[in-house]
Amino acid sequence: EIGHKPIIEHSIGRLLDAGISRIIIVTGYASDHYFNLARKYEDLVEIIHNNQYERTGSLYSFYCLKGRIDEPFLLLESDLLYESRALTELLRAPESAVILLSSFTHSSDEVYVSTRKGKLLGMSKNRADLGGEEVPGEFVGITKISMPVCNAIMNAAEAFFPSDMMRHYDVDGLVAAARTMDIPCLVAEGLIWAEI
Hints:
- The protein is an alpha+beta fold.
- The protein contains six helices and ten strands, in the order αβαβαββαββββααββ.
- The chain has helices spanning about 5-15, 30-40, 60-65, 85-90, 145-160, 170-180, and strands at about 25, 45-50, 75, 80, 100, 110-115, 120-125, 135-145, 185-190, 195.
- The strands form three sheets. Strands 3, 5, 6, 7, 8 and 9 form a six-stranded mixed β-sheet that branches.
- Helix 5 (about 145-160) crosses helix 6.
């Protein structure tokens, strides 16, 4: 909690301020809290429960959206504190899919992003894994997803599952999608944000 309000409610408030009228939360651990939140924000928040969360990674939680999404959307991690500019930068971007990056935070939990001509190439917590490629910033955990990118992530998930259920939506799903199409990356210099 920040200021007697759960982090997720800070995010919901920012999404509402940005004009978002539908929020889907995929739950795993502590799902009762999120179902209570959906009752509080009736007609705005919808809950999808990943009942396999104990043995799956975030890519499977993303996969739980299959058949529930039919238009572009913003994808946010639930444990983020961020300034509203993070949303407005993505919503104003002319591209239908954009990955939000920040300048380097030196937080010791970074996910570095490599690009080529501004398009996603790779992601890793270990910058050395990205070789000599351009690394313009860190993954924030807020992404504008087009339906072609969504479908490419779903296809990647189906290729990984069921033999490898512990994959992640970012370093595995987004990176796999970027092998089939260009996904622009936008660096929001000086963005104030933190992962809790």
